[in-house]
Amino acid sequence: MDAKIGAIDTCKPANNDVGSLPTTNTVTIHTPTVPFNSPDSTLGRHLARRLVQVGVTDVFGVPGDFNLTLLDHLIAEPGLKFIGCCNELNAGYAADGYARARGVGACVVTFTVGGLSVLNAIAGAYSENLPLICIVGGPNSNDYGTNRILHHTIGLPDFSQELRCFQTVTCYQAVVNNLEDAHELIDTAISTALKESKPVYISIGCNLPGIPHPTFSREPVPFCLSPRLSNQMGLEAAVEAAAEFLNKAVKPVVVGGPKLRVAKASEGFVELADASGYAVAVMPSAKGMVPEHHPHFIGTYWGAVSTAFCAEIVESADAYLFAGPIFNDYSSVGYSLLLKKEKAIIVQPDRVTIANGPAFGCVLMKDFLAALAKRLKHNPTAYENYRRIYVPEGHPLKCEPKEALRVNVLFEHIQRMLSGDTAVIAETGDSWFNCQKLKLPEGCGYEFQMQYGSIGWSVGATLGYAQAAREKRVIAFIGDGSFQVTAQDISTMLRCGQRTIIFLINNGGYTIEVEIHDGPYNVIKNWNYTGLVDAIHNGEGKCWTTKVHCEEELVEAIETATEAKKDCLCFIEVIVHKDDTSKELLEWGSRVSAANSRPPNPQ
């Protein structure tokens, strides 16, 4: 088919902007008519074509009796591959990781037992503003309204339980139980996911995918979604107020937040940084969205656990612009940031607030940052102050021969592995803090799930990200406790021929929870992790595993993984002491614990 989706003529959006949409209203399309009543004029084929058009070439899922006919039509589409996962939760996590690299992801599960299983992953994607299309094979269309009780339900004739659960974690829900409006519902759902950059839910009756219908008798016309526009008067007023506020400041700074991605404003943020000369920092959940090779980059602003000397510069500034921030209890280190509202400009995807004063709605972040860049005086004072106080980081104490490996030594070696051809996936836990300290080379990807923080996310997300970004070698850091939640889909990575390097940090428990509130429940049963992966491998696919206990073994393992086994999935189990954590986790854990332990307010 010779067709383009507006300006979406590639599967991967530019600048890693999730859900990149066309900015043109012209489309050149050749759409041959599919004769009505031909085997191709079906709902199943239409859905498959739509997925391919928006950039999905891999769909993750688990087969079940309600979605089997639909799967037949999806796998019949030449540009679409079905990747069967070990469970629905991992299929959802994989679609999440895929959306981070490709711009949109999709998963397919069966009714209720599959839907409720994938629900947690969909909620995580919602929290991270990822366009994810969750497709569920639903009941036979004849069973709606019959008072029948179906299997895979809780035993009531009401089939809406699954739908009601999805309503709070998706931005649109389509229940397709007749062919008359199926075309409209499917197209509305997919286009809404792209426009809103949120997950959507599509339930399709199990008897409908293979039935021809006139609405599917033509090749689906590719989407051309109208771009959102700023209110021009509001934009000009916001830029005027912000420029006046910042130009009178002595040492202003700019800080990038996680909503840079959904606002597609990373380029505008860099343009602002270039023009202003301000010191540039990122919030922890925005790592990877701002180039760390920028000449004025000073690190991660995370309150008391910031990159060295970064918090001092940000919190002592007399003006700071935060682009796309999320201030929750984790990102604020238990609500302990030393920021003042009267010094802040908060720029959200479609709104700008200046200190305690005016707010401007219907102003898109990317437009605002680009326009503001042209109005600011060059002021490198904050960055010059940073250079004056900056002391280069030291190195970990040198290990004695065969000394037990320390985490800080591990990550010193990890730093040398990174390049523009790699991507880092950090699991919830101490890997958050250790990976934050990595300096990302130009082009190196970085992903973690900070807002939702679901342990086990990284296994599925690594699968999906690696499948979407085949040109990169993914390096994942997963704690032993998190790995036990979702370990099975190492199997799927092997089936897909992925060459990810997984560092399994074995410290015997839920270390991040130990630092918030310790108890016997934070100790887990130790597994033979390499033995488990070897058993999953079972001689099928390319896989190499090893355990490392000391620096010498680590050096040898990294050399093998990056050279002799560079085409294999490499699983490196790193044995470390249970109390070997980053100093940042110790500080962060105590502050989050204090926030969690606040007594009730007096009534």
TrEMBL record:
Please state the Enzyme Commission number of this protein. Answer: 4.1.1.1
Task: Cite a GO CC annotation.
Answer: cytosol
SUPFAM superfamilies cross-referenced by the UniProt entry: DHS-like NAD/FAD-binding domain, Thiamin diphosphate-binding fold (THDP-binding)
Q: Which residues bind Mg(2+)?
A: 480, 507, 509
Where is the Thiamine pyrophosphate enzyme central domain positioned along the sequence?
Answer: 239-357
Q: Which UniProt keywords apply?
A: Decarboxylase, Lyase, Magnesium, Metal-binding, Thiamine pyrophosphate
Q: What superkingdom heads the lineage?
A: Eukaryota
Class of the enzyme per the UniProt entry, highest EC level? lyase
Give the UniProt family note. Answer: Belongs to the TPP enzyme family.
- The name under which this protein is listed is pyruvate decarboxylase
Taxonomic classification: Eukaryota, Viridiplantae, Streptophyta, Embryophyta, Tracheophyta
Gene symbol here is LOC107811683
